[in-house]
Every structure is written in structure tokens, then in C-alpha cells.
Amino acid sequence: MKDIYVNWIARKLGVKPWQVENCAELFKDGCTIPFISRYRKEKTGGLDDVEVSEIRHWNDVFDAMDKRKASILATISEAGALTPQLQQAIENCVVASELEDLYLPFRPKRKTRASAAAALGLGPLADRMWKVETADPSRDALKYLGDKVSSVEDALSGARDIIAEKLSETASIRENLRDIFRRRHIVSKLTRAGKENPEASRYRSYFDFSMPVGRIPSHNLLAMLRAEGEGILSVKIDADPEKCCNKVYYDFCHQRRYPSAALAEQIRLAVEDAYKRLLEPSISGEIIREAKEKADLEAVKVFGENLRQLLLSPPVGEKRVMAIDPGFRTGCKVVCLDGRGALLHYETIFPHPPSSRKIESIQAVASMVEKYDIEVIAIGSGTAGRETGEFVKKCGLPEGVKVFMVSEDGASVYSTSEVGREEFPDQDVTVRGAVSIGRRLMDPLAELVKIDPKSLGVGQYQHDVDQNLLREKLDNTVELCVNSVGVNLNTASPYLLQYVSGIGPALSGAIVSWREAHGGFRRRSQLLEVPRLGAKAFQQCAGFLRISGAENPLDNSAVHPESYHIVDKMASDLGVKTGDLVGNPDLCRRIVPEDYVGGEVGLPTVNDIITELGRPGRDPREAATEFEFSHDIRDLEDLKPGMELPGLVTNITNFGAFVDIGLHENGLVHVSRMGRRGVTDPSKVVKLHQHVNVRVLSVDLERKRISLELI
Predict the structure, then answer these.
(1) What does the alpha-carbon distance between residue 549 and residue 182 come to, in Å, rounded to a whole number?
(2) What is the span of the domain harbouring residue 394?
(3) What's the whole-model pTM score?
(4) What phi and psi, each to the nearest 5 degrees, are found at residue 220?
(5) Which residues lie below 8 Å from residue 682, measured CB to CB, with a gap of 6+?
(6) Over 80: is that where the pLDDT of 457 sits?
(7) CATH number of the domain within which 651 lies
């Protein structure tokens, strides 16, 4: 990577240039983000996975910029306009807008007013005016009259068109206007069409809205731009045209002698035309796009953090589960799963109106709990979820059987997906949905990787942000979560395996095929027997795969095979076998880390090895806990200001958190109502699916909005 890029990224992220450079080399060598952040700490200076992923993002951005530069240089060179100074300026660019400004005068154009004027032979007149080589442009214009140009005013008008285009393509003028626009407000107004749109009330807060461009929160801007796309609002920057034109005129005169009064009048007219017709629309659009890019980054960051918390939700583990997809009219779909998530039984019960076959339903639940030795019950949190939870708890469950409410966001997507059809080709969508609810209680991570993250209901304006940026963030988040937990090589589905560092969809299928053909893996080294899984892929994936009951106990830990010799040396020095050291924190405390530092192995790696030996294969996720809504509320009318209720955090945005209190509508805890003065990031206060206590502040029955505060 070029030094100009390395230094820019280092300043942007607040890291050292050598850290960026080493990460770039590791990316070039085919290393993944999880592998780099976990097993190459000496190279990165201990950067965490988020920092490494940010470096990867900018590494890709500048790779694309280099390709763009090559294309631009080739185009300008073919036109015979490339000078050493221009080439150097292009090669030294690190900001896309600056690069495009340099290219703008040379970009192939459609027919414009300027090109039409040039075709009439008015280029030399415009050039003399541009260089302030004439004091009387009207007299000069007489030379250009003829069949195509019939009057002095026509000649001057054409020359002004050429000058206006030159002004709009001058890099310094564009950048100075950007600086002005960045300091202004972004404003939105209700359009005439919006007044007649029945959906306009959703954007009531933005009918007459104004906020500085640099301070507008991402959710505000994304909402405004969505409304603009629907024709409800107009959105623009409130720059002062007169001041902007004065600035453009000053920039024109800055490196020239001041023009005569007659020429100044023509230049002023060209400036006003350039600003109104070319510069203002272009610069305003650029600054709004620039603000949106910032908003996209913030929104995507929120989405990624919510997804991370969702994927790392507490699992109940390998327990026998009854899962219920609730419903009123169509009944509740019930499935029973074994400890591995295999489907044992399914049926439909009708405990609620309009059928209300309650006694029959109680008997069915009791029978299934006994027959399949059910340990936990998962109930979808959607329609009839609360009522179904209360019904199940009245069924006389055996002692120790716990009941959990499980978010069913995305279950219907899984039901109709290719993955769902592949796993359960003989079952209908209702059975698949219930199975998904049960499995996500057992292991949320293993189940949720099968569903498009955008369907999981944990973001804001996810359809409005840059989809490539969103996909990059979500893919990185899923990959980091999967690898932070680790994957059981002999039980993981191909959908989970494909997110393991260095594997991907093709190799995950090959691993499962090899596993089925050979009865499972006994050693990590057997991965090298999988077709197309070479040394590089093995290096990247081995440390994140676990083999329970492996011949070598280190194969069930996060210790990488490349470090096994270090562990063997540690055990030898202590006079024990390697297996005796694994899982023995007392022995691990006797290890002196500095004794094993040398070559490319530094203290961070040795300390990680010792930590892992003391707690091999430890799941970083917490244990799942039960939750129960208040019995005092059934609908919005039951809510009164001052009521204190238990709730579940269902979504976190950068303006607050949404909390499920047992109604169809979630309440909002604004960031200012989170009980901590000066809090600006709600994710620092609450976590997804956290059990919280809230107080009702207000209820808007018309708009079905509930305002809450944390207590």
C-alpha cells in the first residue's frame, strides 16, 4: 500500500502507520480479519477485530481508488493533456472528490451549452476573457460575427457559457464552495405533492426542519432523504447565493489582474450562471451525499453492533426443546426437538379464541413434554406470544422446565428460504418457522447465520443506506461472532462452517461431505485431507474449529496448531504431559510467559495461549435467563404515565432503544431518558435482549407511540 494511503488511514483511525502497513501485507497474503486479530497480535500491535476490519475497509477503498486513478490517467493521456504536474496531483490524491475535480475538465461530456458555443468558434473570445486579456469584450466580439453568430450579445453569451463551464470545473472553486456548504444547514420542507400524500404524517417532524450539516444525526438525515425519495419533502443546503457568487468571483480574480468594468460585468454574469446552473446543484448534491455517507457509516455501525449482540445472545445449549410459533385463528404450531435440534414431532394446538380448545391443548402440551422429555420451551414473541406464554405456564409443567420468549424476527424468512427447504423438504413453512424459533433458543448464533441479517429487525433505515457497505459490515460481523465463539467441527451445519475464517461456502460443503464419509474428525490435521482445503485455508481456520474428545486435547481449544510446540515445551518444563496442562489453571499459573518469547512469537501470543489453556474452548456467551411481562397491561389503553414495567430491549438506534413491554407496539426510551447524564451512545447503556425496568412517560394513542424511561 502506498505511503500516502497508509498515513491517511493511520491518522483517520488513530493507529500507527506500521500497524496499517502490516495489516495490509497480511490482507495481501490472504489472511482474514479474525485470524489477524487473534493470531497475529505481534504484527498488528494488538489491534482488535473492529480496528482490523476498519483498516480492511479503507484498504479496499484505496485499492478501488488506485484503479480509478489508472483509468483517469489513461483517459487524460490519450487526450494528450497529461502533464507531469497533473499526474503528480492525481497520484497524490486521497480524497475521492479532489480526484474527480482534477478529472472533471477532461471527462468526456455530452453536448453542453459550452461545447455548442465552442463549435460556433467562440472559444478564443472566451479564452481572452478568461485570461483577462481584453478590456472591452464587446469590441472583441465583433470579430466573431457571421452566419452562425448574428450579434455581439450572442457572441458574449456563448463566451459566458464557456467561462461558466470552466468555473464549474475549477478544483479550487469547487473545494472553496464545499467548505461554505459544509458550514451551512441542511433544510427540508414539505412539498406540494407531500401535502396530499396520506403517508406524509410519518415525517411530520421534518416538514420545516433545519440543522447544521456537520451535526445532523444519521437517523434524521436518512429519514429526510427517504421522504424526499417519496416526493414528500424537498431537501437542500441553505447556502447564500450572493455570498457564494462573490466567493467564486473573488477566486476567479485572485490569481489574475482585476478586469475592467466592462469585462467584470461579463464575468459576473458568467459566475451567476455557473453557480445557479452548474455549481450549486453539483456541490449541494455532493455535500448531501457526503453527509449521507457519514450517516450510512453511523447507521451501519449501529446495525453491526445490534447484530453482534443478537448473534452472541445467551444459548441454552443442547437441551430438548419444545418450540411454539403462536397464533390465534390458525392455532399454535408446536414442534419438539432433540438436543441436536433434530425434529422429533410437530402438531397444532388451539388454546386461544376463536377456537379456544384449551383443555385439549393443555393435554397435548403435557403429553409432548412427558413423551419427549422436554427441558425448555421456546415461544415466539410475535402475535399471541404473550398469551401463549401465559397459557403454557398454566399447563402444570414439571419442575425445572423453563419457558423462554424468543424473538421470531426472520423466522418466516427462514421458512421460505432455500436453506429452510433444503433442511426440511417435506415440511411446510409453519413447521420450519417453529423449528427455527426452537433452534435459536438452543444456539442463536448457529441458527441466525441462516437468515439474511436485514430480516432480523435490529437496525435503522437498513434499506436506505449503502447496500455494499451494509453487506460488508454484516458479513464481517457474522464472521467475527462465529470465530469468537468457535465452531464444533463435527456437529456444525455447513451454513455455520462457511463463516469460519478461511472456509467459505464451497469448503464448508466439502468438510461436511468428508465428515459424513469418514465418521467425523479426530484431529484438526485431518482437515488437510478435505479436497481443495490447502495449507493457507488450514492456517486460517484451524484455530477456530473445535473437536470434542479429540486425540490431542489442544484440538478442542483456541490454541492454534502452529503454537502446539510452545505448549509442549511448557508442559515439558513443568514435568507434566500436555494433556495435564489443558484445563488446569493452577499449573498454568506456574508458567513464566517471558520464557517462551522468541522469534515471531511475542508476549501477546504467549499470554493468549496460557489464558486459553486455563479455560479451553470457553464459550464467551452468557447463560440464557427467563423473563415475564407484567400481567397488568393488555393494550395501549391500559398504559398510564408513571407505570413501572419489565421490558425486553428489542432494538438499539443512535437516538435510543426500543423496548417490548408485552404489547404489539414497542416503546421508545430516548437516549436522554436512559438515566445517565451526558450519554450519547445508547449501546453503552443497554444491550439487545437485555431485561430492563422502565417507567411510562406518555402514550400517543393516535400514533400508537409509547415514550419510556429506564429506571
Answers:
(1) 61
(2) 321-442
(3) 0.84
(4) -65, -50
(5) 652, 653, 654, 655, 656, 657, 669, 671, 674
(6) no
(7) 2.40.50.140
